[in-house]
Amino acid sequence: MTDSNVLVAGEALIDLFPTESGRLADVETLRRATGGAPANVAVGMARLGSPPLLWTRLGDDPFGEHLLDVLDANGVPDSLIAVDDERKTAHTLVADDPDADQSFTFFNEGTATFAMEPGTVSDEQLCAVEWVHFGGVMLSAEPARSAMFDLVERANDHGCTVSFDPNTRADLWPDQSVLIETIERAVRLADVVKTDREDLAFLLDDPADVEATAAAISEYGPHTVLLTQGGDGAYARATEAAPWGAATADQSPFDVDVVETTGAGDAFLAGAITALQERGTLADAVEFAAGVGALATTDTGAMAALPDRDAVEALLS
């Protein structure tokens, strides 16, 4: 693809991982990795041969410079990547305890990452794309929240397909009522929602299984729901309003040697957007997405193992 018909909006930041086990407070060395869910999606799509536009904001600092280098090396266009000479690039400490859920400590306040402003993406630029994707992290603070909603509402007006990944991080939301109100608004604006059974639990009435979860999310308006289930595969549901037609898909997991799961959901989403853009069936898109997500777990770092199309097709064959 030469012209990008997908726009991904949101954070590109640095993840810092401990290089040894134990309490994060006791760790002496950290490993740097590029991250941010939207950036992972953008690089994932680029590796698959469909580089999207990425609207993000970086600080004029070594972290920002590194992110620019990585995005450029992966073929992500830089026309909507802003560099802020007054603020720093956000970073996150990731605690990856094998005996507990992965946890995050965010250093976002006052950063360039969250200084995105409404109206930055013009109507002319929106008219040139068919799909807009955004995530929940940027909704946790202003002015980024207003910038994201401005973009998405105008994308809807222009007839773009809008996808949303809640990626709910409770530590970013000091006010639970604001979290619920904001994420519900985002879900209602989206055509496609990618999530898991836990991420939107605060909006749902304890659905019994993935089928009920997908149906409950659809009640908010999205015509397609993609549910990742970790080691149990993935499930998807689309209504008649979806361009790919009403359907369900239940995808078994792929057998790969898992090294690290960071970013696997972002890889899945990169595969899903790529495949759905090609107007195949829902089942084919979910199979392709699950293959991308599985291969992304075979190395450390959210971006390091993002596969190219040949690798995915080899896994599926």
From TrEMBL:
Q: Which UniProt keywords apply?
A: ATP-binding, Kinase, Nucleotide-binding, Transferase
Keyword Transmembrane helix belongs to the record: no
Assigned protein family: Belongs to the carbohydrate kinase PfkB family.
Q: Name one Pfam family in it.
A: PfkB
Query: Domain of life of the organism in this record?
Result: Archaea
Q: Source species, please? A: Halorhabdus tiamatea SARL4B
SUPFAM superfamilies on file: Ribokinase-like (SSF53613)
Q: What is this protein called?
A: Fructokinase
Look up keyword Oxidoreductase and say if it applies: no
Where do the coiled-coil regions begin and end?
Answer: none
Question: What PROSITE patterns does the annotation carry?
Answer: PFKB_KINASES_1
PANTHER family, alphabetized? HEXOKINASE FAMILY MEMBER, PSEUDOURIDINE KINASE-RELATED
According to the UniProt entry, its GO molecular function terms are:
ATP binding; fructokinase activity
Record-annotated Carbohydrate kinase PfkB domain positions: 5-308
What EC number(s) does the entry state?
2.7.1.4
Q: Supply the InterPro entries for this chain.
A: Carboh/pur_kinase_PfkB_CS (IPR002173), PfkB_Carbo_kinase (IPR050306), PfkB_dom (IPR011611), Ribokinase-like (IPR029056)
